[in-house]
Amino acid sequence: MTFLSILFALLIEQLRPLRADNPVYAWVKYFATKIENSFNAGQPRQGRLGWICVMLVLMVPTTLVYWLCVYLGPLAALAWNVLIVYLTLGFRHYSHYFTSIQLALNTGDEVTARKLLAEWTKLDTADMEVGEISRIAVEKALITTHRHVFGVFFWFLMPIGPAGAVMYRVAEYLARGWNEPDHMKNEAFGRFANQAFYWIDWIPARLTAAAFAVVGNFEDAIYAWRNFADRWESETDGIILSTGGGAMGILLGTPDENAIAILPVDAATVDSTAMEGDSPPGDAPTPRALQSTVGLVWRALLLWMFLLLLLSVAVWLG
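^ that's the sequence the OP posted. Answer follows.
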């Protein structure tokens, strides 16, 4: 049932993608904001209580409905699982940005590519060159795919089922929503949400990186993971991006992110301590890197589905 739930949800999303501004997401954001306004008094423990409150309100009904569907029959349980996976996946939420940027770069329309990238990442892209646009688009795509697809898969496969998928997506949103906005940065209230998502995402991030390594250049991916993942400020992002870049033979990261420079050593002004040791494998990103990213993500997705199918068959035969 788990394999069929994910398969049907993916097929439905390909045919009818769920908009990022759909009513369900809007209500979750509204509820999270209400909790923040009600609980936030500048103390970490209030952030912890608020996080637990949001999780209980969303996960308990999800679990109760699932148990009811199981009681009603396997078809009802399947339908509920498909609905939850469909709502928590985001494989197509932002793909239009990535696809449009790819088309713009392929046609030489750098102005449109910068505009689309700015809308997607909320960064200032006015002075970005083609290589920089390509790099940031690739990095954003890899992280987004992990958090909207592979992380959801992992927690949906856990014994708590659909409640696990809900937990992961909501935890990811709270880690952003309670830490990234200007009025929330460096506040104690969002500290627990950030720490909680770090541990919730600890195993899924490494499984995603392992999948990238298996379906790409394995040796370079593992080498980059072991030696260069810590050059990103975020450990999780570093693991995914260094491994993904190594798997595709693309050099990701900039000195601003404590990563190796994407420019040649003789053309970049980088502190000597940042250049100690070997350089990460790969070449500077070009528009072709976006096509490589699409291929890597799809191969990793097929690997996950194949392994899930084998697991489902083994359980059924057992």
